[in-house]
Every structure is written in C-alpha cells, then in structure tokens.
Predict the structure.
Amino acid sequence: MVEKYGTAQSPVDLESEALVKGQGQYTDDIAPAGALHGVFVRSTVAHGIIRSIDTAAAAELPGVLGIYTARDLADAGTNPIMFMVPLMSADGKTPVPYVSTPRPALAGDRVRHIGEAIALVVADSAGAAQDAADLVEVDIEELTAHIGTRLSEDPVEDPIWDEAPNNQAYTWYAGDQEAVQATIAASPYKVTLELNNQRLAGSPMEPRAATASFDPESGRYTLYAGSQGTMFLRKGFADALGVGMDKVHVISKDVGGGFGLKVYVYPEYVAISVAARLLGQAVRWTATRSEALQADQGGRDSHCTVTGGFDADGQLNALYCDIIGNMGAYSIGIGPRVPSSVIAENIVGPYATPLIGIRSRGVHSNTIPTSPYRGAGRPETTYMLERLMDEAAIQLDIDRVELRRRNLIDREQMPFTNQFGHVYDSGDFAAVLDGAMASSDWAGFEARRAEAATRGKLRGIGCALFVETAGAYFQEPLDFRVTEDGMVEVRVVGVSTGQRHRSTITHIACSILGIPLDKVRYIAGDSDDVPVGSPTVGSRVGQMTGSAMHIAAHSAIERGRAIVGHLSSGQPNDITFANGVYTVAGTGETMAFLDLPRRLAEARAEGREIEETLDAVETFQSPGFSFPNGCHVAEVEVDELTGEMQILNYTAVDDCGNVINHREVEAQLMGGIAQGIGQGIMEQMVYDESGQLLSGSFMDYAMPRITEMPQAMTIVDLPDPTPSNPLGAKGVGESGTTASVSTVANAVADALRARGVTNLQTPLTASRLWEAMRTASA
Amino acid sequence: MPMVTMTVNGQPRSAEAEGRTLLSQFLREALGLTGTHVGCDTSQCGCCIVEVDGRAVKSCAMLAQEAEGARITTIEGQAAEDGTMSKVQAAFVQEQGLQCGFCTPGMVMSVTELLRHTPKPSIDEIKHHLEGNICRCTGYRNIIKAVLVASDQPLGALASDH
C-alpha cells in the first residue's frame, strides 16, 4: 500500500530560510580567499582558422600569473571533451553512428562558434585578468559560417567537420517509414505543418562558476561547480584531464537553477583546473551573463515537419515526423538524442495512432552546442501533436476537443504498450481532458470571445494534451546510515537546483521512520561522499530517489527489528514498530530506532557479536519510465491594432501520480509553465548570417518577467498512481514546459484564425502577430 | 587604491576599491557579503538590489566609490540579530516565493522598499514594482502571494486550489 505523505497544510521546507537570508552557498560565494582569477579570451568569429595567438603584451601586465592556450593544455596531458551518451536505434539495441566532434577545452587551430574559449588568463585580481585578456591578440582567418537549422543535400563550402561534407551529424529513423507514408497517402485527409522550435538559452539566474585546485601530494583535482549532480560531470572532467575518476573530486553546493545545462563538464572547468595545477594555487572563474549566453549549452533548435493522415471521422491513421535537429558546433552529452530518440519516446502521447514514423537528421552549425533544456524533446513532441490536432480539426471541420477525444487511448487499455515499446501503466487521458474543460469553463468561452471583440480584442482559447516520459535512468541508489549520535544520514546523487529535494526526501524518511525532521542529515553534491548514480534530469528525483528513500527506510526498520531482537529478550516477530519506537510484545520493553546504533556499540563493547547494522546502500530499480500526463488550457487576448498579447487564464490539470507535496508539485508546474510561455511568446537566441550573436545580453534575450505571466491560474492534481514505484509518483519537473508551449500557441492561433492567419511560428511576439494579421488581411 | 567607507547594515565598513569596482563587486569581494548576487551585466535582472540611502538600487549599476559615505542595507541586514526573518523574508518562505534562491535577495530587497512606501500594494502595483527582477524558477505567482502576505492582504483568487 502506498503511504500518504505531505499535505498542503504542512509543507516541509528545510531549505528556503537560508536562501532568503542571503546565506546560500553558490559557487562564487564560496571561492576561497586568495584564489586567483581566470578570464577567458573567446572567439569573436563564428568559424575560422586560428593563425596566431599573441599573449606577449598581456603577460607583461602586473598581476598576471599565467596565460594558457591549447598548446599548454596539450602539454599538460589533457584530452578534448568527448563525453557522450550513445545515440541508440529506436529499438534501443544498436548504436547509431554520428560525427565525432572532439571539443577542445581551449580551441587551438580552429574556432567553431562565437564565444568558444581560446585562451585563459590568470591573474591575482579579476581586474588584472580582464585587462590582460583584452590585450591578447588572436588572428583568425574566417571561414564560411553555417547558421540555421537546415540541411543541404550537397556538400557545403568549409564544412564544420571534414567527416560531414554537408554538416550532417547523423540520420536516425523510427517506425516503418514506407508503411507510414503509404497509409498517409491513402488517407482521405492529409494535414501537414512546419514547426520551428527556436533556439533558447536556458539562463539559470546563477551564471556558471567554478573554482579549481590541485593537490600535488594526492594528485587530485578538486572542482567546485554548480551542477545537477556531480557524476556525469566528474566522468567527463576526469577523461578530459586524462586522469582516473579517483583523481577528481567535484562538489556542488547551492545551485542557482539548472534546467538541463548544468549536467556535463564544460571546457572552462578543464582549463582552470590545469591552470590551478600549473600555478599551484586555486583558480576561480565566474561567467558574466554575456559569456553565459555565448558559452552555456543551448536549448531546443529543431525544425519539424509533421504530417498526419486522417479518416473523415477524424481518426489519425498515421503520423510522420521529419525533424532536423541543430547540434551546434559539437555534439555533446545527449544532444543528438533530444531531436531523435526522445521524440520517439514521447510521440505516441495520449493517442492510439496505429502507425508512427520518424526521420531525424542532425546538422552542425557554427553555434553553441545544444543539449537538454527543460523538457528536452517533450515540448517539441507535444507541439507537433497538438498543433496538428488543431489544424486537422479545422480541415476536417470537427470540433478540436472532439477530434482529440476520438483518438484517445482509453483508460481500459492500460497497461498499454505503445508502438515504440513503452508501457503506459496508468493514466486516464479522457479524465484530464474533461477536468481541464470543466476547470477552464471551455464551454462558456464563445461568450467571452464575443465580449472581448467589443473591446477590440481577439480572444482565443487553446488546449494541449500530453503524455511524457519521466525517470531518464532507471536505477537510483541511496546511501542510508544511522550514526551513534542518533542521526539518520541520507546520501543522494541528484543535486537540487531549486526543487527542495532535501525537504521532500527528508519528509519521506521521517514519515516512515516516525522521527523528527531535524534528525536527518541530508548529504548531496559531493562526489566523494555520495553513491554513483544519475543527476537531477528527466523529472526523476521525486519518483526515483524518493522511492529509494522509501525502500531504504522500510528495510532499515526491518533490520532494526532484528537488532532489537538481539538486544532484548524478544523475538523479531514479537517486536512492533510505531512512531520511531520498537516495542517488545510481552515485556513491553521499548527501544527508539535512533538509539539502536549507540546501543549496538555498547553491546559490542561488552563483547556481544551482532553483525546487523541499520546502514545500507539501497537501489531502486524502475521497470521503465513513468508517464506524467495532463491537459492544459490557455485563454489569451490579442490587441487587433498592436498585436500585443495577454495570457488571461491558464488551467493545468495534471496526473503526476501520487502527490507527495502538492505545493511543491504546484511550484514545479508554475515554473515549468513560465518557461514554456517564454518559448511560446518571447525567448529566442538570434545569430546573424555570419554567426554573430545578436541576443548577447538580457537586454536582447527576452525572458518572461512578472508582467508576462497569466493573470489567473488554476492547477489541479488528478492523480492516477503508477504501479512502477512504491510511491506511485510520476515526474513533474518538465510537465509544465511540455504542455505550455503548445497550449499558448494553440490559443493564439485560435485568436487570430478569424483574421485569416494560418501560419504562426514561435516566439509569438507582438510584432510577429501584428505582421501576421497585416499579411493575412492584405 | 583609494579607500571607500560606507555604513553597511549599520556598521561602518572600509575597504580599497578601484575606480571601476562596482558596488556589487565591492560588497561581495571586499566585504564578503555574498548574499548580494550578480545575475547579469546589464542591470536587467535585479539579483543585486541593495538599499542605498533608503532607495532600492541595482548595485551592479553603481560604482563603489559613488557609495562613499552612503548608508547601505543588504539582504544580510534584513533578519533580526537573533536570526528572526523579516516579515518579507518570512512571507517568501511561507508562500514558496523562491526555488533556486538566486534572485531572492534582490526580490526581498525590492519588495521591502515597495512596502515601505506602499504598505498595501495592489497586484498591478506589485507587478509594476518587480518588473526589473527576473526569476527563472517560480513563474512569479508565489512571489506575488508572498508580497500579499507580507502586506497583510488576503490571497483572494491567488489562493491555492488545494
């Protein structure tokens, strides 16, 4: 049976007080006094050959202690960054080849994007380092820059990688291509849409920062850097430094937002580590925001052509997705997976589509590498499905909600094995749709539209259904200990970047063990001190680490029962456990759970041989993804004259399984929805044709501010628990983003449809909407 | 380098500062007050807001030397000496007006100023006042709630549905 955890009335928050007092320990806050300052010299050219790097003038400045280039890193034994998760075929069995893109920590002979690091200047003050960096002269012979998310069939001039004459990174297929195409061709209605997922900048508010040091005695590097979990970073870091994993120690304390881009090793971390070793002193670096925009991994950036073949009664017979994913200059991490296998994992969605095919092709460009950003393929997938449903409804002249309803997978069909082999173990998609229709008063919308028209406003409503994958990696360890001073120690892998993991995990532990919240020491973020597992990605920590916590606490209670058996006159089956205390039936003798280590130590000191311990590393193994799902509705108004748009109401009805803490679920949804709204209405990384970054600061890269948020918002939990983990919880970190891009886009399209606007591409800025209305009415 | 002297959180503080040293840098590096955060270079995000002579100021947009003789209050000066959070801080915690916490010191400083001159701000006034503070995590809704709670106003339609 699944236990019930928190309630909205008793939120557990063990983390916020320190942060609200300014006592957070973000990486730059805890740089050791006296650490040297590193500043990077970056490429101002998108694509070119480095002819010379002149550091002589810079080196003469007072305070400068070292200037490092690719040659110095090579001499120090470093390797290019190669950390990649293999791209697997749709059935998960065969690795799919892609162009190998060794990424130097400092570019030596070639630069491939604006902002690529070329030299590192280290000085005794930030000012001196910056002054010296400004004096480093880099001569670059420019090559043709390749910008944009398109693929040439023919070889291009100056390809970015010799291996790829047309800059193509990979080709990946899923489904029976011929059968899908034939079915679409034979369908009475064929609906095609081109959808662009523009390049985004994840932009956590804390810019990336790192401090590196090296201990010559142990030969170990220590890196302080904000991350979503130190394990993937540690692996890539050690490989790049050319040392074993035992020679690197990575520590993340407080992290000011992650959203996917603080998972892997970055070039800067390698370069400052080598400098720290060569100089024998700690070296720190903190990105300026313009550096972050030039050098943090990018998000989204794919161009999708989606085609559906429908029956006259609205049945979707077959679906085909043709995707071009922009990898940027290098393929990093799971970059190639985002526009390919992640799409396949999510494309079935809530619909019983008999045939689905995908072709995904990666293209390299002279831009920052792309990799996951909150949702990572899920928002793109929902965008294809839900924009298609709305457009098909128009073409087939069927109500758009009714069209969706006719295609839904029924609750009765669970467990439902989808076309790509994933098993939906739960989920009532009709129920979330009904819930969203009721909560948003969808039925009463036309009256509101008519009223808005009297004010010169085009009012629109839109919905999006989604089913997404959560969990990412299906094993999660947790190190559980109880110390002789009566404290539970919990060591976990995933680092919180704002999700209040400590609160949630501690809450689960205390609910099961019947102990006060202040009796748990929660330890995360130190690679020397936590088990090997996966970072905070793919909406996984609640369900995976939470389940590991559940298992660890319950198994500790059982081990404790055996220990009490040894320490008392009772037999384990006569010993009950409640509220943190064991009671021996018959004698009435009691022992507190937290006292057992001390009592054990005393008994052992007296010569008793008791082998049992409360301590264990427990691993939760999930059978596969969980499938959070939901239906969101947005209601918008567009000003007829200016194109200015306001989101009035936003309704989210979500099944994220059993809810451990509604307020935290709500917080994740609201934040995720805001980020999806950002993609929908304003955010866009813009490169010009020569590869210059035009959105190089927060004055140009527009993120939602408080005024852009929906005026009213309703968030409803409609759980259908998953049997795939003991908590019955599904993920929730990405759901908001997965749904909100499409929800807002559908609402705006609905608002402008009366004006004849048919083709809208995000971001739906006022100028785009104005232009679309003007063009349509011309 | 010239010495700069100012009163910070009620204490006289002096340290050297180059002409180009920003107030944000001075507070963090010279005085070790790392609660003031720097989230952009263009005074867009508001993470670095402190009070200078009673006005909320983006400390990345002011030179340390310009603050010579000024009275500065930072996030570290908001809680009582025994650690009790200010009303605004407590409201942010209660309403979960933060997630990663990086923008939070600037938000708290900005809201503290708002409530001094507008003790019962409307939602529109709250939005107008906080337009220069970017939060990437919360979607702002709980921040508005925190301001309402800190100003003893009902949450009304913003109350949680569950």
Observations:
- The radius of gyration of chain A is 28 Å.
- Chain A has 19 helices and 28 strands.
- The first strand of chain A starts at residue 36 and ends at 42.
